[in-house]
Write a structure and sequence with these properties.
It is a single chain. With about 375 residues, this protein is α+β, with helices and mostly antiparallel strands. The strands form four sheets. A six-stranded mixed beta sheet has the order 11-12-13-10-4-14. Strands 15-18-17-16-19-20 form a six-stranded antiparallel beta barrel. A five-stranded antiparallel beta sheet has the order 6-7-8-5-9, with helices on one face.
Length: about 375
């Protein structure tokens, strides 16, 4: 008999001690905020923030044909990823619809030629991705393993995060590039240290055994006291990623969209060796997009104070020209913002006469290029 009770991360008791407001997210009981989500957001933009992301889905793929399997199952060229590097990619259906967007880490390569990858899926799609990889592994000399219970994931994000982490590890962070990872020890805890994130800031994601999560969280908290590090919930993670123009599955990405519909056709690598799931449909989608551009994902900035929400219609000249996919007040810009798919004719920055239908009132919005915010290097 299946249970509908939410799952808890290894940091659950700690979140409650910290006074977090908890929420159900993809079947997990997760911290939404600890205090002010605006303060948490601004801390990540200017100092550092700490996130529990242990609900994400880790899937291990190993074996002599692990690279070939992933090249077949995913749209990216995973075989070309170097050891210690990571790649953003997608897994699609045969019809080209996006099942999920992923980060794939190539962790090791043995002398015998066996590769070790970790695929990180969104929490809401982890089982779907696992099932698809298992099904697509047929005929490949590779193993697909569900490792969701093997990891806790803590993200340290913000401009002060490199200094905080350096105080706790002797790993070579200066040489760790964006979208790379290396094994190391942080505060005495063995970890995979990845320079990845979902906030638009520099930062790290630390994969550790669940039994080490509390120890690591407390060490990072103590190390960050002097620079204003704060614990952060999923609410500010959403406004941070929105300002950075990063897509969220279920909002900007779905099975009804191909990567080309989402403006992310660059992740599809037709030139890689071998066939891959969805190739034919994606080739057709690429041709359609070139001949007749689909709706384009754009940024919208409010002229007033009313906040757009997902599903609201975007309008111009009395006609519906698109739909909001994500919207929220922007702490950094001080105005409501949104991402929306709009007709190509209205997608250019500064296009006049564009608004959002908010409960029957057409509120004026400025069309802008994404992202809304880009950090200074």
């Amino acid at each position: 008999m299946s249970s509908t009770a939410p799952r808890h991360t290894a940091l659950d008791a700690l979140h409650r001690v910290l006074g977090a407001t908890m929420t159900d997210f993809a079947g997990w009981d997760m911290p939404l905020r600890y205090g002010s989500e605006r303060d948490e957001h601004n801390a990540v933009r200017t100092r550092a923030g700490l996130f529990d992301l242990s609900h994400m889905g880790e899937i291990t793929v190993t074996g002599p044909q692990a690279a070939q399997l992933l090249n077949h199952a995913l749209v990216g060229d995973i075989a070309s990823v170097g050891v210690g590097r990571a790649r953003y990619t997608m897994i699609c259906r045969e019809d080209g619809g996006i099942l999920d967007d992923l980060i794939v880490y190539r962790l090791a390569e043995t002398e015998a030629g066996s590769s070790h990858y970790m695929v990180v899926a969104n929490a809401s799609n982890a089982q779907v991705v696992l099932d698809a990889l298992v099904e697509r592994s047929s005929g490949f000399d590779a193993e697909v393993r569900d490792d969701r219970d093997a990891y806790a994931l803590i993200a340290l994000q913000g401009p002060e995060s490199p200094g905080v982490l350096k105080s706790l590890t002797d790993a070579g962070l200066d040489g760790l590039k964006y979208y790379a990872g290396l094994p190391g020890t942080v505060a005495g805890v063995p970890a995979l240290i990845a320079r990845t994130g979902y906030t638009g800031e520099d930062g790290f994601e630390l994969f550790v055994k669940p039994e080490h999560a509390v120890e690591l969280w407390q060490a990072l908290t103590k190390a960050g006291e002097g620079v204003g590090l704060v614990p952060c919930g999923l609410s500010c993670r959403d406004t941070l990623r929105l300002e950075a123009g990063m897509p969220l599955y279920g909002h900007e990405l779905s099975t009804s969209l191909t990567p080309f519909d989402a403006g992310l056709g660059r992740v599809v690598k037709f030139e890689k060796e071998g066939d891959f799931v969805g190739r034919e449909a994606l080739a057709e989608a690429a041709s359609r997009a070139e001949a007749n551009p689909p709706r384009v994902l754009v940024g919208l900035v409010a002229e007033g104070r009313r906040v757009p929400r997902a599903g609201y219609a975007v309008v111009a000249d009395g006609e519906v020209i698109g739909e909001v996919t994500s919207g929220a007040p922007s702490p950094t810009l001080g105005k409501p913002i949104a991402m929306a798919y709009v007709d190509a004719a209205h997608a250019a920055p500064g296009t006049p006469g564009v608004g959002v239908d908010i409960r029957g009132s057409h509120e004026p919005y400025e069309v802008v290029a994404l992202p809304f915010y880009k950090r200074q290097k």
